[in-house]
Amino acid sequence: MPELPEVETVKRTLAKYLIGQKIIQVSVYQETVIKIPDVNEFKNEIINKTITDIDRRGKYLIFGLSEGYKMVIHLRMTGQLVYGEKTMPVKKHTHVIFELSDGRELRFTDQRRFGRIWLVPEDELLGVSGLCTLGPEPLRDDFCWEAFQSQLSKRQTRIKALLLDQSFIAGIGNIYADEILYRSQIHPERKAASLSKDEAARLFSEVQSTLKEAIAHRGTTFSDYVDGRGEKGTYQNYLNVYQQLGKKCPRCGADIERVKVGSRSAYYCPGCQK
Description:
- It contains six helices and eleven strands.
- It folds into two domains: 4-133, MutM-like, N-terminal (N-terminal domain of MutM-like DNA repair proteins), CATH 3.20.190.10; 145-268, Orthogonal Bundle (Helicase, Ruva Protein, domain 3).
- It has a five-stranded mixed β-sheet with strand order 2-9-5-4-3, with helices on one face. Strands 1-7-8-6 form a four-stranded antiparallel β-sheet, covered by helices on one side. A two-stranded antiparallel sheet has the order 10-11.
- It is an alpha+beta fold.
- Strand 3 and strand 4 form a beta hairpin.
């Protein structure tokens, strides 16, 4: 599933090309992708809307549109949102095509069909499923160390599971939770409240630095993820533990291991993450 660095990369890629464009036509080939409103209303309402800005909240993309509307897109596991020429071959599993005023298209493709699109008036934005319960954005100025430390001290949840909790921090998934914990030298099964102040401080710092580094490399591509121009990310070449089972830890040389935390796998170094 695209996580914060991948969605942020898609946002930045598309913003360069889409802001100021008008949507002149839309074709919907898989109606279940449109969550709100019904498909006919969606097609009627979105035509002739101008894209005024593109934002990200957690793993959601939020398109500001003229006349006070917002279009929200969640890529879920295999969603892709790619801008390009009309002459591009139409991929299998292309579910929505937006025709734009510059003669190009924005295409939403999703093999697993879990991705969703909402079109709502701006004052109804928090009614979009999942948006209103998101925790703080880890790369914004208001991501506060004091609040972070306070929340950790109250939680008996295992730290890997807590990092995946979107109401605790928005945007982190399996890949970056494992990498953040490795860089912080914290075992994924530690309870959050057991962390010392120094460990919590390292974790807070590594949440930000790991995500920033991943964005600089345009995200992680194992299979489906591409940016807004169809280009793969490269951060998979810099991963320390995620999906590195049996390989040597680059820091201490121990073999990378895997453990289940809830229903999720967690990759870690038994030498560095006690």
